[in-house]
Write a structure and sequence with these properties.
single chain; alpha/beta; Glycerol-3-phosphate (1)-acyltransferase; Plipid/glycerol_acylTrfase; transmembrane; lipid biosynthesis
């Protein structure tokens, strides 16, 4: 009884501080910043400040494994908090790629647009292919991307099938893929949760995977290698019986 009460009190405290630090202070301040680098700096540090205040500071490991050149970071997806956590764990130069529906979220949609997030359409193959071509050009121009290749998350603690778009982009742009693992976020704010739970939060980056070619087999191999790394280190089970990849339309 008492532990449940304490968890509920912690959740109310953490949620209250999230509204204060992230929504009432961080979001308006980010929107007021004149440049993309400054807006992302505000966003990253607002997340760090909030987590520190609620007693769950974010630990980031393996940043030295990030290449100096452009790359694509791919991460597991387990909670509503994964985007802010990965943003806080990566340098400001990373642009996040998310599904187009997020652009319409109240307030949050406006903020992530200001953060330079790129949106992709998964329901229309023609629109998706055009967006992939745009992202490949941006990688070629020196931009780095961050992607959640599962595309979604569920309540069950399992790594889902990967979409292949991130790996296809990396192949055509000739850049490496860096696997990343987020730990503790499912317990902290998983599917269906309103109040956060106390949890240790970590982001860890692993050795880059290089895509050997733009053919289907090479892209699928890079996807499998990155997924195996993430599965080995995320602490969750395989959500598929095979390391299947949903292959997107060629750019």
């Amino acid at each position: 009884m008492i532990p449940n009460l304490l968890r509920r009190l912690y959740g109310l405290y953490a949620l209250t501080l999230a509204v204060l630090v992230l929504l009432l202070i961080g979001a308006p301040l980010a929107l007021l910043m004149p440049g993309l680098r400054q807006r992302r700096w505000v966003g990253r540090n607002a997340v760090h400040v909030w987590l520190w205040c609620v007693g769950t500071p974010l630990r980031v490991k393996g940043q030295e494994r990030l290449p100096a050149e452009p790359c694509v970071v791919v991460s597991n997806h387990a909670s509503y908090l994964d985007g802010p956590l990965l943003m806080a764990g990566l340098p400001w130069r990373f642009t996040f790629v998310v599904q187009h529906g997020a652009a319409n979220w109240p307030l949050a949609g406006r903020v992530i647009k200001a953060m330079g997030v790129r949106f992709v359409e998964r329901e229309s193959k023609r629109a998706g292919a055009a967006q992939l071509r745009t992202l490949i050009r941006r990688l070629g121009q020196g931009e780095s991307l961050a992607v959640f290749p599962e595309g979604t998350f569920k309540a069950d603690p399992a790594l889902l099938k990967f979409h292949g778009g991130a790996f296809l982009m990396a192949a055509h742009a000739g850049v490496p893929v860096v696997p990343a693992v987020i730990r503790g976020s499912r317990r902290f704010l998983g599917d269906g949760q309103i109040l956060p739970n106390p949890s240790r939060l970590e982001v860890e980056l692993f050795e880059p995977v290089h895509v050997s070619g733009t053919d289907r087999a090479s892209v699928a191999l890079a996807c499998r290698l990155a997924r195996e790394t993430i599965l080995r280190h995320c602490g969750e089970v395989d959500g598929t019986h095979a390391n299947a990849m949903e292959y997107p339309s060629p750019p």
